[in-house]
Prior knowledge:
Elements: H1 4-26, H2 36-39, H3 45-59, H4 65-97, H5 104-111, H6 120-123, H7 128-148, H8 152-163, H9 171-187, H10 195-214, H11 230-257, H12 259-270, H13 274-293, H14 295-300, H15 303-342
Protein name: Acyltransferase family protein
InterPro entries: Acyl_transf_3_dom (IPR002656)
Keywords: Acyltransferase, Membrane, Transferase, Transmembrane, Transmembrane helix
Amino acid sequence: MRDRNLDIYRGGIRIYITCFSHLVWWEGAKVGIFDRGWVSAALFSMAIIFYIAGASFSLTSEKPYWVYIRTRVKKIVIPYWKYALFCFPAVCFFYRNHGGIMPLKDFLSYVLFTPPVEHRIFDHLWFLSPYLLISLFLPMLFNGIRRYKIPFIFYAVCVVLLLSFNQYYSELIQTAIVYMLFTVWGLYYKQNLGWQNIVCVIAAAGYLVYMFGVEKIPFDIQANKFPPNLLFVSYCMVILGLGGSYMKKGIVSLYDKSAIVRRYIDIYSKEGYDIYFVHAFSTLLLGEFKRVLGLNQIIADHLILQLVYVVVGFLLLLNVNVYVLRLYNYVWSLINRAVKVVFPASQL
């Protein structure tokens, strides 16, 4: 069952990540324009992505497990492999400049959703492995909730307990455990959690007050995001719990009232993960433009220019992302034609 509002949320959060969050972090805090601390407050968006994934699954019709896995492959795995193949010449060039060819171990890591090269074109793909890992268990989780009426707060308590023993398992497992909570939260999309939400938000807010107020932990959400810890979970829980309904109503209202907003949200929603993958090239173009003109320090020294930069940068990326995606799709259409000429029965 298709949910109109979920499509709106999906498009809106992709715009937020690709045009604002990564703008103020990648081409803001990381280049000295903004202070790292307060900018990190914007880095709650991936929790929403996982929430939407859970909510979407809760509305799908029941299907055999292998059919479900096939849809995950089509929506996530194939787009990633296309993007990885597209970027592979740049990866080979990187290894050649560092004195060798790509080792088999790194190649396998590259194919299996963990690009080994630390570079902007891959920085945003960290979520793929935990996302796919969670996806493997999503049908069982949902069936358990539906059959045994498991309360959401049970999962929240389990996550807190599991994070208490995070030294005994890998960073990938810890990341999957944390984002599993937000995915499960999405599985209750059509249910009124009522007091469970209130308890979770109050507990999370209390923990944040203790950490920031008593323990005097510096406010830096990014420092608690990789791997995500209890502070990060609490922060996202408070943001989504207190502001989630307002964000939902606000984005739907904008969508209904503005044709321009509706147009861009529809584009970012319908294009799937491709536009998220390729938006890294848009920020690279913006970063190179600023670097050549020496704008980073100039913007950093003037508050008015910082505000102007956020607005102009947002609007620039909002449009450039679309054109980069069109170019990306055009290149793939040329490759597909070439493959069909050589292998008439084949299609990428």
